[in-house]
Design a protein that fits this description.
mainly beta; four-stranded antiparallel sheet; 11 strands
Length: 113
């Protein structure tokens, strides 16, 4: 199993970013996928999960209405669209396969003016 994130970077408060995670090594379309994040000095926390095949979603309260998780099973990719970003969203964001308990390497998101 391999999970490769991309799309992180530096963005101003109020801005947007879209993270991508390309999965390989398992039948992606069958399984739920999640995004987590970890800020410096804090524990890793769940941001959002998307299920399959129904594509239902769950979000942490602190991102509801601002972030959207989605997936493209034809591309083996899960996305995290982040809008109205705040400085407290600064963290390393990780893609996670809960079925096999695999993590991606993470991508840094920094929200700062």
């Amino acid at each position: 199993v391999q999970l490769v994130e991309s799309g992180g970077g530096l963005v101003q408060p109020g801005g947007s970013l879209r993270l991508s995670c390309v999965a390989s090594g398992f039948t992606f379309s069958y399984y739920a996928m999640s995004w987590y994040r970890q800020a410096p000095g804090k524990e890793r926390e769940l941001v959002a999960t998307i299920y399959s095949p129904g594509r239902s979603t769950n979000y942490a309260e602190f991102v509801k209405g601002r972030f959207t998780i989605s997936r493209d099973n034809a591309k083996n990719t899960v996305y995290l669209q982040m809008s109205s970003l705040k400085p407290e969203d600064t963290a390393v964001y990780y893609c996670y396969d809960p079925g096999r308990r695999y993590w991606g390497q993470g991508t840094q998101v920094t929200v700062s003016s």
